[in-house]
Amino acid sequence: MLRFLRNGLRLVQLAYTLARHDALFPLETLRIAPGIVALARLVRRRGDTRRPGQRLAAAFTAMGPSFIKFGQALSTRADVLSEEVALDLGQLADHLEPFAGDDARRTIEQELGRPVEALFTSFDDAAVAAASIAQVHYAVTADGREVAVKVLRPGIEEAFARDLDLFYWLADLVERAQPRFRRLRPTASVRAFADVVRVEMDLRMEAAAAEELGANFESDPNYRTPAIDWDRTARRVMTMERVRGIPIGDRDKLLAAGHDLNAVLKKSAEAFFFQVFRDGFFHGDVHGGNAFVEESGCVVPVDFGIMGRVDADTRGYLAELLIAFLRRDYQAVAEVQFRAGYVAPDKSVEVFAQACRSIGEPIFGKPSSQISIARLLAQLLRVTEQFEMQAQPQLLLLQKTMLMAEGMGTRLNPGVNIWELARPLIEDWMRTHFGPRARVQRALAETVDAVRKLPRLVETVEQIAERERRRAERDLAASSIDAMGRRGRIDWVLLIAIAALAVAVAAWWR
Fold this sequence. Notes:
Number of helices: 21
Shape: globular
Structural class: alpha+beta
Helix content: 55-70%
Low-confidence stretches: 484-510
Largest sheet: 5 strands, antiparallel
Strand content: 5-15%
Mean pLDDT: 81
């Protein structure tokens, strides 16, 4: 009851804020709490000329850190919102007013157990960057290393916990009140969002992610990650090498420094491709301020709070889907979706292939510089309702990241498609992993693996058979003992009855 009252009050506040920004349409679409929505309409601020997505982004910003993050997650859901709204939410900036330097110092001392002066010879109280979860300060260590120190906002864990409880409550309400939205798996989507946020709240996890990503590119001269200072890193504090370079989104400065923008884009696209398909571990927040280009041209990401993982099966699915779309083989596109189990088996493959054609042709009919793979995936989600496709939360972060990468590429060079720059690499990788020879090798490897597992399988079957035989023997023995017990009880009853009868006859005879 207490949870209902607490979240009910939060829902009233949420509806009020949405109404003040003329952005009630998400609650109106979901058709939950119609009474609250009706009351909120009374305070709706009309006459706002901004697009609906821009108004919704402004409302989320006013609601605080959790809703900024939630809005960014929603930017991938063109199947829930319109494509225009999703694109506007994609521009939602994760920037907040910085908190006081004294608060940052206090957190550092509490987490690391030493005074700031003992940890750093200099520490800038003014934050160089402030986001919804943490902010960054520049400092210098005792041995003269320049570092960047990331510190969590005071009280951020409690604030997110309250909002996540509201999100779960709303997701459950939607699933119970609106069965037509169950295929979108709102609770699973909130859980995926919560998992990402939970990792962001532990800066040791972010430091570990930075090192893992760096290890994957250890021999690559075009992409690296900053070194982590583990002695000055804890749950709420992370210290890493300060990167000297130009933000990858600053086109003018890159040009002034003599960098080839196409080369920068190519390195970024190739690195992203390797992360997704080679390693299954990718940077999930690739906006223009989250990576730097060093003087050598090496690309260095600096924020590892949002990372994504793609398992081998999903990578194979994505690769096959991409190949089929690039070949404009829509029958194959449909078959990949059915084989992955993303479409209900009772649906028509041919009709789904037709729907895929309606998505692909308008995109692939454009010049290569205008082809958007992220938009292709977004459009694919648009047909989910007709074919009862379940949403795949594990793909949402990847789609969002691709969208951000394309947007960054367009800003740097509107005439170039980042996937086109990386196309030779992509084609070579596809040939290596999905060409005729690769398929034969994969089939051979699977056969060898099956043969290798055969003795173990036979042994397992024999063990199961032996267990079943022993169980049957135990059951038979138990039933025999039980039967003997029943017979013994019957014999004793008969004996007692006969004795009683004998006593009775003897008494009568006397």
